[in-house]
Design a protein that fits this description.
mainly alpha; 8 helices
Amino acid sequence: MEGIALSEQDKRARFEQAVLPHLDAAHNLARWLIRRREDAEDMVQESYMRAFSSFDGFRGSNGRAWILTIVRNTCYTWLQRGRLSEMSTEFDEETHSPETTANPEALLLGEANRELLAKALEELPLEFREALVLRELEGLSYKEIADVTGTPLGTVMSRLARARSMLERLLVVGTNKELLR
């Protein structure tokens, strides 16, 4: 009995070391895919439970890509169950932004820019939004994004190029709308 408990402790320790450090990245990805904080938290919790139960099969060295793949698949499954219509566009940028100490005008302009960027990012189709979040917000390499999304490297590169182009157009339009106010 002692050997089984030790094995479970070893599993928990290995899991915590390999996967737990990526909890913020998992929340960030789920948040951008689901776009609703409460549901994203549920998806991350479910993903971590799935990851722990199948951790014995994890043989890789990249716990981050592995857990983000599980989070992604969990979110997509949830979205495919018809809950897409239940999503809201609620987003709290403060959760994803570093704190800054600047003058009030700079803070106000920075907040307006973050809001404009968040709105533009939310308007992107899911696969493009996902690619940008994984690359620009989570810093994954193209290869890691390909592993997480299960798509060829060329597709990742294409999606990122198209996503950046779409985002640029959305930001130009959004900025022009703000200037006309």
